[in-house]
Design a protein that fits this description.
The protein has 171 residues and is mainly alpha-helical. The chain has 6 helices and no strands. Helix content is 64%, strand content 0%. Helix 1 runs antiparallel to helix 3.
Length: 171
């Protein structure tokens, strides 16, 4: 964890990118009705075979929400793969805390136990992405102002364009 003490460290950005690749691999199949049918059937068969329980029968509402979630997560994952930023890790960690909460709630209410490995990975990636921010927050003002590369020394984030409007970054 010492290499991940600061969100500006390259190792932290590798975690952000790795979590994005995981999200892309796991959720791409949820993004369309056709691929979700395949994923649903595969997860259900796997759950039955492992004694973890099958998924409920597929219905159009379930498919709609799976497709919405899959589409948003795929876009979010591609952003983090193409341009991983420390702030993306922070927001992804927060999203993972929410996802893990709702997954735990669903497990407590009897959904297929096939969800357990996904919950474990949500928690793991969430911790890896949030702990460095917590350590940074508790490190004192000097560490907080040392921010990520491109950060304003006064503590504000200059962003990818070095403080200039995006359209003027290369001028």
């Amino acid at each position: 964890m010492s290499r991940l003490r600061t969100p500006a460290h390259p190792a932290y950005l590798r975690v952000v990118r790795a979590s994005a690749w995981y999200d892309l691999a796991v959720t791409a199949g949820f993004a369309t009705p056709w691929t979700y049918t395949l994923v649903h059937d595969a997860l259900s068969s796997c759950g039955k075979a492992l004694g973890l329980g099958a998924l409920p029968e597929l219905d159009p509402w379930q498919a709609l929400f799976a497709n919405l979630m899959g589409s948003v997560v795929v876009v979010w994952a591609v952003l983090r793969i193409v341009r991983p930023l420390p702030e993306h890790g922070l927001f992804d960690g927060i999203a993972r805390a929410l996802f893990a909460t709702w997954q735990a709630y669903a497990l407590a209410h009897g959904v297929s136990r096939i969800l357990w490995p996904f919950l474990g990975l949500e928690v793991a990636f969430g911790v890896l992405q949030l702990v460095p921010w917590s350590l940074r927050r508790n490190a004192g003002p000097a560490a907080r102002n040392a921010g990520p590369a491109g950060a304003d020394p006064a503590g504000g984030d200059a962003g990818p364009a070095g403080g200039r409007p995006i359209g003027t970054a290369s001028r």
